[in-house]
Amino acid sequence: MNVMPIPVIDNTICFFINNILYKLYNDKDDSINLLFDFKEKEAKEFIKEIYDKYAADSQTYNDFRSTFFDLIDNPHKDGFITIPVYNYSEFFENLNEVYSLELDKYGEYNELPYGYARITNFFLDLWLRGSNLDYLDVNRFLELQIEMYRNDLFKDYRDKKFIGSFSEELNIPITCENKVSNTWDEAPYEMIFKLYDRYKLDRSVNPNYYELPKIRYGIFERNGEYVARISSIQRDLDDINEDNYVKKACNKLKYKIVDNDFDGIEPNKVISLFMFFNMLKSKGITKVVFPTMLIFDYPYHVKRSIMLDRELKDNWTEHRIECDPYRYQDFKEYYDRSYGKEEIISKIKTEDLIKTALKASSYIDSSSIRDIDNEISIDLSNFEYNDINNPFLRDINISMENTTHDEFKSKSKKSKRFS
User: Fold this and answer.
1) 34 in a domain, yes or no?
2) Total structural domains in the chain?
3) Phi and psi dihedrals of 172, rounded to 5?
4) Do 105 and 180 sit in the same domain of this protein?
5) DSSP assignment of 231-272, as one string?
6) For 44-61, how does the pLDDT look when each residue is reduced to its tens digit (9 = 90+)?
7) When you count CB atoms within 10 A of the terminal residue's CB, does the N or C end of the chain come out lower?
8) Alpha helices of 126-178 — where are they, by DSSP H?
9) Are residues 46 and 65 in the same domain?
10) Global pTM value
11) Residues 15 and 65 both lie in one domain
């Protein structure tokens, strides 16, 4: 376990002002479209003071000083979204707490070190998780992130657990694993469901698998009850561990879920969502919300692609890659996931997510759904698998037994292998 030290707030403040605000406010066409409007005069003076301390040893920062100060005093730019900050002391305290929790949870879930690129991306990408209502009160938004990081409800699933089978006839084992999301993802945690070929599973320690779309989520308290906020349902592309046998079987079954009103929705997303509904219900959570609009989508990612491409071409020379291969690998992973993907990202964050939520709700006779305050809310109080009015979804058997690999192999029943 790679446990990270809690950062000192002064260091967080300096890093945010001299690295993140500098990147955001740099007067170039490819800068991302976010400004902060610090309402207190004391806040403006404080930020300028911190900047000047850093700029003393940098000609580049000195050259940008006048522009930076003008944007601190008058944070308005065509095509940019401005987030008001009414209490800068609380803002930096909350920001430091979110960062501390991100480091802490990353250390609990990962063996690899927390690289510099991830630190920068965290402070730049955190704002992707908010709606326009969230940013009416940025400190409330940060407090929500703190609450969701702290509510690590499914920490028992840090290590892969077997939770059931996909199709009673084929008896394809299902595993579940909870992880900390990437910085560019829409929520702090992600739930991952994987399907296996039972025969390969019995004969291998690390068999290939077929991964269903990830559920990216956070859990918080509202009006005295816990609520799960699902911000994204997305499958990674080009998985080198993909098992073609399981993929073939899954594809045969998933399209049996499709009805005349499926409207282009990916059935595997509905399957993942129902598995997650079952896990939430097992923990006593019956309220699920889906944001209908995340404020930074298409325009943000267009500009982010330009920045990433320029950084790759200008900064990552062959010599630098040879000297710092791990940091390059960290950057390149982010580049490959983000560059040129603005159309896909925007569609996944809006249209596809809402359609999937509505379709899932239509299969639950006893569910209620509401659309209010830029989010869709589903009530799972009476949700049970036996109530699902789709026989192929009911065929997914989730037992929540939490068995390990060896325990599962000892319990496995022989079944006819699919072809």
Assistant:
1) yes
2) 2
3) -85, 115
4) no
5) EEEE--SS-TTB-HHHHHHHHHHHTTS--TT-TT--HHHHHH
6) 999 999 999 887 778 888
7) C
8) 138-150
9) yes
10) 0.82
11) yes
